[in-house]
Amino acid sequence: MALYGWMLLAPALILLITFAFIPAFETVWASLYSKGTLRRPSHFVGVENYLSLFSDPAFRKVVTNNLIYAGITIPVSIAIALGMALWANAQIIGRGFVRAAYFTPTMLPMIAAANLWLFFYTPDLGVIDRITALFGFPSVNWLGQQETALYSVIAVTIWKEAGFYMIFYLAALQTISPELREAATVEGAGRWTYTRRVVLPLLAPTTMFVLVNALINSVKLIDHLFILTKGGPDNASKLILYWVWEMAFAYFDTPQAATMTTLILVVLGIVAAVQFAVLERRVHYR
Amino acid sequence: MAFIELQNATKKWAGAVGIDNVSLSIAKGSFVVLLGPSGCGKSTTLRIIAGLEQPDQGRVLIDGRDVTGVPPSKRGISMVFQSYALFPHLNVAENIVFGLKVRGVGRAERDERLETALARTGLKGYELRKPAQLSGGQRQRVALARAIIADHPICLMDEPLSNLDAKLRHSVRQEIRSLQRQLDMTVIYVTHDQTEAMAMADVVVLMKDGKIEQAGSPASLYEEPATAFSASFVGTPPMTLLPASGVPEALLPQPPQAAAKENLILGIRPESIRVTAGSANGLQGTVQNAEFMGAETFLYAGTAAGPLIARLPGRVSRAPGERISLEWDRGDAVLFDKTSGRRLESNSGNAGQKRAVTA
Ligand SMILES: Nc1ncnc2c1ncn2[C@@H]1O[C@H](COP(=O)(O)OP(=O)(O)O)[C@@H](O)[C@H]1O
Ligand SMILES: [Mg+2]
Hints:
Largest sheet of chain A: none
Strand order of the largest sheet of chain B: 6-7-8-3-9-10
CATH topology of chain A: MetI-like fold
Structural class of chain B: alpha+beta
Bound molecules: adenosine-5'-diphosphate, magnesium ion
Oligomer: heterodimer
C-alpha cells in the first residue's frame, strides 16, 4: 500500500526534485563559495558572502525599496480591487462593461503595460505632463528623478494588479446569495452594516488568496523595471529580484546572486508558513 | 379589523406578470397561506408585503398605516426564507441575534432573548455551531429562531419547508403552527403544496397567473370550490373533471338545458365515487391501476369521458383491464362553466367569488 502511494506521488515528486529542490539546494551551496577568477578558483568561504551582502549599502537600498513597494502595492491594489468589485457588483446596468474595463490591464503582458505607461510618464510629451501643463504645473521627469521613480513604478503595478484581483472579488461576490442581503435588510441592516458584517467576512478566503498572490508578486514581478527605469536612477527604484538578475547576468557575480536568492527563499518560506498557519485559522472557509 | 391589507397591488416586469391587481385583507393573529402553482405570484405578493419589492400600483397597509414606501425593517415583520438565508460565517447564536445586534439591543437583553428563542426552537446546545455543521431541519429552526426573537407581530415565510424531507415537514409544520399560536403572530405562509396549506391555514388564498383565484377557509375551498382550477388544485387526489356531455344524465346535478350541456364541466370528488360491477346507469369504465394506501385505495379508471380517480375505503382488489361502472349521488357533483371556469350556482351553493378575505 505504501509503495503504491509513493508510486502515485512519484511523477510530481521527481519533477519537484529536478526543477525545484536540486536548483534550490545548488543555489544555497553556491552561496557558500567565493567568486572564481582566473587566478583564484572558487573556494569555500562559509557565511562570508552573507556578511558582505549585509554590509553592502546597495543591498539595504533594494530591500528598503522592496519593502516600500510591497507595503504600498499590496494594500492599495487590494483595497482598490475590493472597492471596485463591490461597486461593480452593485451596478445592474453596465456591469459587464465595468468588469471588462478593469480586467483589460490584467490581460496585457507586464511589458506592454510598462510601455504604455512609459508613454504616460514621458516628460513634456506624456499624457500626465500634458494634463498637468493645462493647470500650469511644470514638467516632471517622473521616472528619471530619485523622489518619484519608485512611486511611478508602484503606480503601474497597482494599475496592473488591481483589475486582476477585482475579478476574484467579483467572482466571490457572485456566489453570495441575494437572500442573505434580503435577510439582513429585513433584520434592519443598512448597506454598510451588511457589507461589514456579512460581505467582508464572506470575502475573507478571497482576500487571503489575493494577499498571498500579491505578496509573491511584489517579489517576483519585475518585468516592468526593465522597460521603465532599469532600477535607476541610482538604485532609487531597484527591487530585490532585479538586483539579483543584475548580479547574475550583468556582473556575473554568481555567489552574490546565489546568496541573495537564498535569502529570498528563506523569507518567502517563512511568510508562506506564517500566512497558512496563522491566518487560515482566522479565515472562514465554507 | 384588517391587520394587513393589500389594496389593488400590481407588479409587472418586462414580459412577466408578478401579480395583477391583488387585494387581500388579513386579520390579526391569523395564519394565512398563499397557495398556488409555481410562478403564480405567491412570492411576489409576500415580498411586496415585506417591502422587499415595491408594487407598481396599489398600497400596503399594516395596522392601518400605509407602509407602501417604508423599508422592510420598519414594518414590524420578520421573515423565513426558502433557503433559510443563514449567514454562513456566523454561528447559530450570532445568526439568531443578528437583528438585535444591528438594532443596538443591549448585551444582557440579547442573551436573555436568545435563551428564550433557543428554548422555543429546541436549539439549546447548538449555539456555537456554524450553519454548515447543521442538518437541514436544524438550519430551518435557526431561521425560525431568528424570525421569532425580534418579537415582531408579523412573520412571513416563503416555502420554509420545501427543503426538508417529507417526514420532517410533517412535524415541523405542527411546530410552526403551535409557535404561531403561542406567540400570537400573524403569519403569511407561502407554499405550492396544498396538503401543507390545508393542514396549517386559517385562510387559504389560492392564486393563479398573478390573481387570487379563491380565498377562504380550507374547508370552504374544499367543499365549495369557486372554479374548476380550485377544484383540481385542492385535495389529494384532486377532484376529477369531466365534460358534462360525456356523463349519463342520471349522474348530472340539476339536469341543465340540453343546449348548455356542451359548455359544462362536471366535477366530482374521488371519495364520492362508488364502483359497481355492472350497472347500466353508471359511467362505464376500465380499471387502469389500483393504489393501495392502507386505509383506502385509489382507483384510476379510464372512461369514454376521460380519466377518473376514485377513492375507495379499505382494500379493493381490481385488476387492470377489468370493466366497471362508476356512480355517485348527483348532489355530490358540481358543474363548472367551460369558458370561465366558474362554478355554477346549484341548489345550495354560495360560491360567489370572494376577492377579499375576512377571517
Ligand atoms: N425579479 C423578477 N424579475 C422578473 N420576473 C420576475 C421576478 N420575480 C418574479 N418574476 C416573475 O413573476 C412571476 C411570479 O413569480 P413568483 O411570485 O416568484 O412566483 P411563485 O408563486 O412561484 O412564488 C413569475 O412568472 C416570475 O417569472
Ligand atoms: Mg416562490
